[in-house]
Amino acid sequence: PAGRLPPLSGRVYGRRWLVLLLFSLLSFAQGLVWNTWGPIQNSARLAFGFSGWDIALLVFWGPIGFAPCFFFMWLMDKKGLRVTVLLTSSLMVLGAGLRCVPVSDLEIRKKLIHGGQLLNGLAGPTVMNAAPFLSTTWFSPDERATATAIASLLNSLGSAAAFLVGPLVVPPPNGTASLVSQSNTQHIKDRIEAMLYAEFGMVSLIFSAALAYFPSRPPFPPSVAAASQRLSYRRSFCRLLSNFRFLMIALAYAIPLGVFSGWSGVLDLILTPIHVSQVDAGWIGFWSIVGGCVVGIAMARFADFIRGMLKFILLLLLSGATLASTWFTLTCLTTVTHLPLTTATLYTSCILLGIFLNSSVPIFFELFVETVYPVPEGISCGVVTFLSNVFMGVLLFFLTFYHTEFSWFNWCLPGSCLLSLLLILCFRESYDRLYLDVVVSV
């Protein structure tokens, strides 16, 4: 009849791409700001008097920022995307602004920079967990995996961009201590501050755009699943903790991704004993993240075209990660295995490992949501990312005691990938949300 509304599965809006763009830019900026100091640590030590402990703490504010993860999951579930994104972006603006406060006392300045990094770290739970919630709220079933991949992987791309932006803007200190003049130190400090102001301007612009336009939800839901009632916050946790299949894939995600994140963070330390420079280690990290983003989006698009293939895609990616990590670990034991240890083999094995693991993230997220539906997307993905950060923290804790020899750390990689592969092999997949969209809408 005239005036009849279109079916639920057809209610998509062109503005969904604008919403995805704004969220992805926020995610990109958070990763960029978080990784500001690692690529320019030598220059930062000279300009601001940072110690090695300071540099390590500036990186650790990211995982520490996941402490209130469950609050942000509750906020997303109760108040929706707009309130959560505006709170997150305001924390990032405040954090980026604190880093720019021009005080002459270096001790106060260092405290302000640390405070700014912590506030930026508090934005991590939203930018890393909200992607499946956004894709379900705004996108049709045949676009959800792609939207999840774009929104979730842009954060990693931002941290990779810092490897380019930092060294491009900030010059390194002179190699000889006697050549480090006052004017050279001041020049380096000025360039760092220019970069901090630029990042503050970028974050402020994204916040202004989100404040002007970032709706909580579309006028009509794009699918049956988006319109359906979800479990309460308390019941969701009870459902997750009692669901053995969810716990299986949660461990399959958290263990290798947590180990890989910790391993990537100290990659220059691991490669130094085999005579790989810090510059090469940085490029290896950059290309593994960029490759993971490209392959991850391609895999997600494939999953949208051919539904019900998430387990198969994960088996392929984890098999590749297991082989690549084993290759790297055996190559580092060149005195035992006699495998060729060249820059090309290290680049290839590390980059392949990064591609396989980074690109698995959005596929895992979609599988989590399908497995535990009707648990809200932000809660299920928040639990697993929190668990991943716990594994990363435990691994780095052990590293503080066993940091003279890294072969045990390298063997953790293939071991965690193989364990994840076995868990996925034993996992019985189900597509409860997809079933609702396809069958009920018909």
From TrEMBL:
Gene name of the record: Dirc2
Subcellular location: Lysosome membrane
InterPro entries: FLVCR1-2_SLC49-like (IPR049680), MFS_trans_sf (IPR036259), SLC49A4-like (IPR049604)
Protein name: DIRC2 protein
Taxonomic source organism: Acrocephalus arundinaceus
GO cellular component, one term: lysosomal membrane
Parts forming coiled coils: none
Listed transmembrane segments: 17-34, 55-75, 244-263, 283-300, 312-339, 345-369, 381-402, 408-427
Keyword set, alphabetical order: Glycoprotein, Lysosome, Membrane, Transmembrane, Transmembrane helix, Transport
